[in-house]
Amino acid sequence: MTTNYLTSQNGAPIADDQNSLSAGERGPLLLQDWHLIEKLAHFNRERIPERIVHAKGTGVYGTFTLTKDLSDYTIADHFNGEGKQTETFVRFSTVGGEMGSADAERDPRGFGLRFYTKRGNHDIVGNNTPTFFLRDGIKFPDFIHTQKRNPMTNLKDPQAMWDFWSLNPEAMHQVTILMSDRGIPANYRQMHGYGSHTFSFWNAKGERFWVKFHFKSQQGVVNLTNEQADKLKGIDPDSSQRDMVAAIQDANFPRWTVNVQIMPEADANTYHINPFDLTKVWPHGDYPLIEIGVLELNRLPQNYFAEVEQVALAPSNLVPGVGASPDKMLQARLFAYADAQRYRIGANYNQLPVNCPHATQANHHQRGGAMAGTQCPFSGSQTGGDASANYGPNSTQSALVEPTQFAEPALRLDGEADRYSRYDQDDYTQAGNLYRIFSEDEKARLAATISGSLSQASMDVQERMLAHFFKADEDYGQRIKQGLGL
């Protein structure tokens, strides 16, 4: 019978893991007790910095099955060949709360999806909402500061939140979504997901298309009222995590129908809505949903920290056939997300099993940094080529070749470099349209939720916000005004 010995991290057998090395039975401990030092030092480092946003989340593996070939639009491998299956990983999350926060908070939900494709990892890092509060990433740090804790009191700050929104009317559409019944999903299975941003496809002919991703829950959509959420937060702060774990363990695998909206590149120049504005949706009457596949989640991670905490989703993880767009929020996130992972985990975070390519090999000239030399268990070496060559081009026999056939077609850019104000855009019509499709009960709950929160802000902030609500819809503004008792 084989005995599994307890060892230290370097593999040395440990004869006593229960008692520290001391100078006599009652004496002080000795610095030479390297096993004690190792245990305490590792314990001190067991937590990496939590994500500034999306700190608490749930991760699940699954598969994407393509039901409609998209080769007319993109050369992306996972979108070519009807019936093709691609391994996936999805991380759901709340946005503003810390690691210990409750799952049932009123908050957008992160919906981050990774495809482990044969040409690299493709990440779509979106939310459960098709829009966002901002259209320019330069405002993002300020916005998140208003969602976090007051630097003096360390308490959540309704004054800061509403003050910021009152001075940024572009947030009106997303504020209406957040404060409506859609603001508290009952769990992660029963909510839709969206890529939110505008991305690009390009095909073998070099034609470019603009695209938006939609993930429609086959479980239906279920939301919580304020009262239900308050009760659930007290009963089970981990309600969404527990719900997902139970579903997977019971083989009740959740599914989403995957859809895209596709816009020919030239349409962007004349369309009446800026198609790269994250505060707007593309009306389905103009660009209908095209069903392309099914996302199924069916396997739990084996180690939450190693896989869910250290998964490094980033919208900059793009593959041939899928690209970015002039969406200013997306442009900022292309840098910010990957940089956040370098800060949290280290320069070689993509060598961790959950992050490295599962269906191909990563070949590059990067060598140094934390965790250098770590090998991906799915594809072997993460460097490729001659291990001594950390530069390119080089003349070694195993020199890496640039596959020019995957080059993205040129994107024409026009205009003068400037810091353009976007406040001349229509920030109210889509918010008003959304309000008008709500039922009377939904409108009443929306007004009560906003009034209850906005009443905690100063009078000047309340008045500025009221002006925005009235511009979106007269009845919308009147209900909030009445709710505030003004």
Structural commentary:
The chain has twelve helices and ten strands. By secondary structure, it is an alpha+beta fold. Among the domains are: 57-133 and 168-347, Catalase HpII,  Chain A, domain 1 (Beta Barrel), CATH 2.40.180; 429-484, no CATH class. The termini are far apart. A hairpin with a 2-residue loop joins strand 3 (109-117) and strand 4 (120-127). Strands 1, 2, 3, 4, 5, 6, 7, 8, 9 and 10 form a ten-stranded antiparallel β-sheet that branches. The chain has helices at residues 34-44, 140-147, 158-166, 172-179, 226-235, 239-249, 304-309, 328-344, 429-437, 440-454, 459-472, 474-484, and strands at residues 57-66, 85-94, 109-117, 120-127, 193-194, 199-202, 208-217, 255-264, 290-299, 322-323. The longest helix has 17 residues, at 328-344. It is globular and about 75 Å long.
